Amino acid sequence: MRINRRTALLGGLGAAALGAMPAAAQDITFFRIGTGATAGTYFPIGGLIANAISNPPGSRACADGGSCGVPGLVATSVASNGSVANANAIAAGTMQSGFVQSDVAYWAYTGTGIYEGRPKADGLRAIASLYPESFQLVARKGSGIKSVMDLKGKRLSLDEPGSGTLVDARQILAAYGLTEKDMKAEYLKTQQAADKLKDGTLDAFFSVSGWPNGAISELAVTTGIDLVPIAGPEADGLVKKFSFFATDAIPDDAYKNTPGVKTVSVNALWVTSIKQSEALIYAITAALWNANTRKLLDSGHAKGKVIRLEDSLQGLGIPLHPGAEKFYKEKGIIK
Q: What is the bridge-based pairing of β-strands 27-34 and 73-78?
């Protein structure tokens, strides 16, 4: 979305953002990144990337003289209900881009899975695969939940409606022969679930995110938690049935005083629309992978360190945007 300086002023942009702009009219490109709940991993990672790729008119160059982002671009990290909501918003044209789990992106693009019987979102295109998203089944210490089967009769949150976590939590339960009817199911955002677990009114909750998750980290320190493994023949069958799942592990040092576990994961994708111009997405992809962005990712969040160019095409499940594809070909990532 492009607007000139006069329109931007009329639209109420802050004086601080525009104070350094020269008097001549300049174009600004606004680019929103749909993320997830503020307590999760999507939102802070989205903020880092938005900061890295932004370079509005009047901005100073980086300290080393290199470009810090895309000239004229103002990117923002927008909190949302997660993967499904982001895929829908991109398809509807109300969001320029967003983070979407690889399974949800595949279903939306092909019109299968949770999108069965609904119009395909076949305009979705990938910018990059960012990092694995671990399925984190968090139980209150002392709840007696040591395995997925122990969830029977317990108070469990499967995450909020519209989230990719809810979709996958149901699949995980099914792999173990369980349904929501076998437990006291609730449908809460991660922070809400964490708050209820803290006050003892919830026994466990699912979260699909990169570790460490802020809300879970706080629980580990203040309340005490157990991570419940998602492993064994049931998990192996899940990975075999759905190609977008992968075996994964959360290490011992992810959360304080909490032993790590084996689990499963999907990939976090940065997705846009085929309607976005090739030149813009090429420039954004280049900005994502430049040296200055690397510094921000490495210092800004634990999961930022695993966002790597060499892994940028893993488990996409949907086609690349032509602008991103052009960049990866130039870098030799696509042979």
A: parallel
Q: Which two tokens stand for residue 290?
A: 């430049």
Share of the chain above pLDDT 90, in %: 67
44 in the same domain as 102: yes
CATH number of the domain within which 147 lies: 3.40.190.10
Dump strand ranges (E) for 92-219: 97-101, 124-140, 155-157, 184-186, 204-209
* Bridge partner residues of 84 (DSSP): none
Q: Within this chain, do residues 174 and 56 fall inside the same structural domain, yes or no?
A: no
Residue position matching structure tokens 């157990």: 226
Phi then psi for 228, rounded to 5 degrees? -100, 125
What are the phi and psi torsion angles at 310 (to 5°)? -65, -15
Mean pLDDT of 126-152: 95
Domain membership of residue 335 (yes or no) is no
pTM: 0.71
Residues 6 or more apart whose CB falls under 8 angstroms from that of 293 comprise 49, 52, 53, 287
Q: Are residues 6 and 122 in the same domain?
A: yes
